[in-house]
Amino acid sequence: MSGPLFLQSLILGVLLGGLYALLAAGLTLYFGIMRVVMIAHSAFLILAAYLAWWFNRETGLDPMLSLVVTVPVFFLAGFAMQRLLVSRLKPLTLTMMSVLLTFAIALIIEGALGFIFTGTQRRIQLPYAGDSLDVFGAQVPVVKLVAFVLAAFALLSLYLLLKYTRFGRALRATIQHPEAARLVGIDTDRTAGYGFGLGLATAAIGGTALSLDATIYPSLHWHWIGPLMAIIVVGGLGSIPGAAIAAMLLGISQSLLQIPLGATWAQTVFYVALFATLMFRPQGFFGGRLAQRF
Amino acid sequence: MHVTHSRRRRAMALVALAATAGLALSACSAGDDGGSGGGGDDDPIVIGVSLPLTGDFSEPGKGVERGYEAWAEIVNEQGGLLGRQVELKILDDQSNADRVVSDYESLIAQDGVDLVFGPFSTRLVVPSARVAQEYGMLFVEPAGAAAEVFEQGFENLFYAAPAVADDHYNYLADYLLSLPEGERPKTAAVAAMDDPFAQGTAYGLRDKLEEGGVEILVDEVYPPNTTDFSVIAAKIAESNADVVIGGSQYQDGVNLIIALQQLDYQPKVAAFSTAPTNPEFAAAIGNQTEGILSPTGWSPTASFPSNVEFVEKYTEIFGNPPAEDEANAYTTGQVVAAAVEAVGCAEQGECQQQLIDWLHENTVDTVVGPLSWDEAGRPSGAHLIQQWVGGEIKIVLPEDAKEADFIYPKPAW
Questions:
Q1: Could you give the CA distance from residue B31 to residue A43 in angstroms, rounded to a whole number?
Q2: Where does the pLDDT of residue B12 fall: very low under 50, low under 70, confident under 90, or very high at 90 and above?
Q3: Interface predicted TM-score (ipTM) over 0.85
Q4: What is the DSSP letter of B273?
Q5: Range of the domain at B45
Q6: CATH no. for residue B292?
Q7: CB–CB of A139 and B262 under 8 A?
Q8: Which of A157, A199, A292, B147 has its CA 20 to 30 A from that of B306?
Q9: B312 close to A (CB below 8 A)
Q10: Banded model confidence at residue B34, pLDDT cuts 50, 70, 90
Q11: Has the keyword Transmembrane helix been applied to this entry (chain A) (predicted)?
């Protein structure tokens, strides 16, 4: 492996890992709050990507402006979904039934996208799609950098929100011990609803970031859900920093392993990491006190 | 599940009415559901087809269905075959290889169809061709270009397109290797999807260039679900090969090209299968298309006489111009029709062998040009080579069919 190729792949891996980190953050949040396995998370990503594409096609404006609308709408949709659907599931079988429920939602979104926008593969045309910056002889694609910055910014905001605001404390209390949270006066149902909304809002941002540099089609979400699920297990279910670190490490590994192994085998890194985690440290490698209890 | 279309049903009802009014029905084959028995001179010629109208191949499957329907409509408008109307009986095999076998069994044995047309894709062509072979039926198919189709020992199979996958790039390989020593490309990089068709096209060109002394620097295979091409692009960019060959379908080709542009890799030749002929392609890669090459079995602008008519009538019937799947299906219809007209029969039994023999010995004029076949049913031609020139995709090779001059080396993207 030559030096320049290594540097180039490392940079591409970091950029990819940043996007994975944001996409996985929402997924781990749902599980943290309610033990919900949200199969439809990546379907919402693709939905947001389609909305960004559609917004760009109709208005000609930068697709990132669509966030002004999609983030609040997704937040409300998440809140509604939690209050009206997920909270109706029996607590005893919640995790399992949530797989069925969200699987159905994923199929509905996929079907609706196919129905409205057809199965034709779409791509946003950006004036800077093929541009790149030169860094020590390696090329940093501008769109990937923009997506990375968007992801990093969203993740940082999410972290600050959870760490330093009153709502964040209430949400973390709900995650850690719902009963105790209720005892100190937190409305855990409402908080869980907001938490779910927050998760979907990250999907809106993640999907828009994805749409900048991807060709999208309705069934694309199936390619994303597997790696994302693996990332949150490796990172420790419910831990946002864990998900971010695991996403970065796996993203970089996937990029670097492609050089000696080729694309087919490099993909398996997610599943190898998943098996290793389940065998040696089922609660996840980072954070993840939660998973120990379940 | 039987898929019958209301248009067909109306046509069938009319024909049935005419038949009952005009003649006493002769004995019909078992299981016929529309009163359209075999035998009488005015009865329609029934053609059985099974297509993947649902499941994995439903998009191209529906394209093939439209092509067959357009063919039947155009033939009937001009008085039918041998003076008889043609009627399609199309079943849905759900993209399932077991299903396609039972579909053709029942079409041939129970419904007693007079002729069959092939389904879509190698995976379904092979098992259905075997059924047709057992019944001694002529089997012309619109899709199934991979090598394995022709290695099964079928004597009744004909592929209704100009070339098998390996030969798609023949004109390009010949052209590049005929360049003077100083201009000839010396190195090439290949990235192909793990798919028999995509690999067939890319490896056909790769092997011919390698034989001609071009060094292959990168040879990557990626699984069909790959969406991130940045590292594959990084490997190709680092090799700085003169030629880049993409064994692509659509999204992979687009994503790979953009990833290559992002890394500022500038090849002298960029050849991608399938993707560049897609109507969305130019917009998807930001109109940086100049000089990108793609082989094509059919072009809406090709001047073969029946092609002009096909494009015009198809557009009239469906409201939009046909694509390659539709054209390949139409070609299948033309090939069978030519044999039927020449031999003068269309029924099960001895007639089928006569049709097969006739096709082995003759050349048929179609919308993709004149076609002839070897013993295994491989068409003997090569694909046209198209290149993006001035914002449009045009035929550049071979010389006698070209619409524009070949651009070499490719301008920067």
A1: 46
A2: low
A3: no
A4: S
A5: 6-163+302-371
A6: 3.40.50.2300
A7: yes
A8: B147
A9: no
A10: very low
A11: yes
